[in-house]
Specification:
Keywords: Methyltransferase, Transferase. This protein has 248 residues and is an alpha/beta fold. The protein has two domains: 179 residues, Rossmann fold, CATH 3.40.50; 50 residues, N-terminal domain of TfIIb (Single Sheet), CATH 2.20.25. Helices cover 25% and strands 30% of the residues. The protein has six helices and eleven strands. Helix 1 packs across helix 4 and helix 5 packs across helix 6. 34% of the residues are buried. Bound molecules: S-adenosylmethionine. The site of S-adenosylmethionine has 21 residues, from strand 2.
C-alpha cells in the first residue's frame, strides 16, 4: 500500500498540455543529454515515468528505457505516443515494484520522489533503485530544495507561480515534512479549475543518508541539468549516486 496519490484519468488526459513548459526543448534537452551521458549504452529505468516526457526522447537516442508508474491512466497516455516494445512499463509503486533486468541508470525526475509521502517509503525508493542497478550504475534524482527560508513565522503557504492563468502555492507542515501543491487554473472557456498534489519534501542531505542506507555513494550534485554549481541559494538539485563496482 503506497502513500502516493493515485493520478486519475482526467489529470492524465490534461497532463501534457498543462505541463507544456516542461516539454519545451530548452527544459527537456539538457535533461535528456545529462541522462544519456550517464546511461551509456543503457539500459535505463525511469521511476514514475508518467506519460513518457523524458523516457520517450531518451529512448529515441537509442537507449533502451523501461518504466515503473503507479497510475494506469498516465501509462495509457504514454501508450498514445510510444508502444510497449519501445518503452515497456510496469504499473506499480516505485518503492517496491521490481522489473526484470539490471540497469546502468535508474532515474526519477521532476520532484516525483516527493510524491511518496513517508520517509520509510522514500528510503525504499532508494533501495529499489539500488536493487535494479548493475555494479557501477547510477541513480539520478531531480528534486527541488524546500523553500523553507521563505516562511515568515506563522505562515504555512508559499506561492510558486502567480499569473492571470495560474495561481500555484504550496502549503507545508514542518513536523511531518508533508505538504500540498495547490493549483488554480483559468481555462480557455474562462472557468476555474482547482487541482492539488500531495508530497513529502526531502533535504539534499537527507537524500544522501537515504542513498547510504541503500548502499549508494554520492558522485555528483549540481543545481540543474545544465550542470550549474549547487550552492546554498540553489532552489533545486540534480544528484547522482553510484553503486560501488564491488557491490554484490
Ligand atoms: C510530476 S509527474 C512526473 C512524470 C514524468 N516523470 C515527467 O517527468 O513528466 C509524477 C508521476 O509520479 C507518479 N507516481 C506518484 N507516486 C508514485 C509511486 N509511488 N510509484 C510510481 N509512480 C508514482 C504519478 O502517477 C505521476 O505520473
Amino acid at each position: 500500500m503506497t502513500s502516493s496519490d493515485l493520478w486519475d484519468e482526467d489529470t492524465a488526459e490534461k497532463y501534457d498540455d498543462l505541463s507544456a513548459e516542461m516539454f519545451a526543448p530548452q527544459v527537456l534537452d539538457p535533461a535528456v543529454d545529462f541522462l544519456a551521458r550517464l546511461a551509456g549504452s543503457g539500459p535505463a529505468l525511469e521511476f514514475a515515468i508518467g506519460t513518457g516526457r523524458v523516457a520517450i526522447p531518451l529512448a529515441a537516442r537509442g537507449i533502451p528505457v523501461s518504466g515503473i508508474e503507479l497510475s494506469a491512466p498516465m501509462v495509457d497516455q504514454l501508450r498514445r505516443k510510444a508502444p510497449g516494445e519501445q518503452v515497456p512499463v510496469v504499473v506499480g509503486d516505485m518503492a517496491t515494484t521490481r522489473v526484470p533486468g539490471q540497469f546502468s541508470l535508474v532515474y526519477v525526475v521532476w520532484n516525483s520522489i516527493g510524491n511518496v509521502r513517508t520517509q520509510d517509503e522514500q528510503v525504499d525508493c532508494f533501495r529499489n533503485a539500488a536493487r535494479h542497478l548493475s555494479p557501477g550504475g547510477r541513480f539520478v534524482v531531480e528534486l527541488w530544495v524546500p523553500p523553507i527560508r521563505r516562511f515568515p513565522p506563522g505562515q504555512s503557504a508559499v506561492p510558486f507561480e502567480v499569473t492571470d492563468r495560474h495561481v500555484g502555492f504550496d502549503t507545508y507542515d514542518m513536523v511531518t515534512q508533508r505538504g500540498t501543491s495547490h493549483h488554480y487554473r483559468r481555462l480557455d472557456d474562462g472557468s476555474l479549475r482547482y487541482g492539488y498534489s500531495n508530497f513529502r519534501y526531502i533535504w539534499p542531505a537527507e537524500c544522501d543518508l537515504m542513498a547510504r542506507l541503500a548502499g549508494l555513494e554520492l558522485e555528483q550534485r549540481v543545481a540543474d541539468w545544465d550542470g550549474s554549481p549547487f550552492t546554498s541559494d540553489s532552489e533545486s538539485h540534480v544528484s547522482v549516486w553510484r553503486k560501488p563496482i564491488d557491490a554484490h
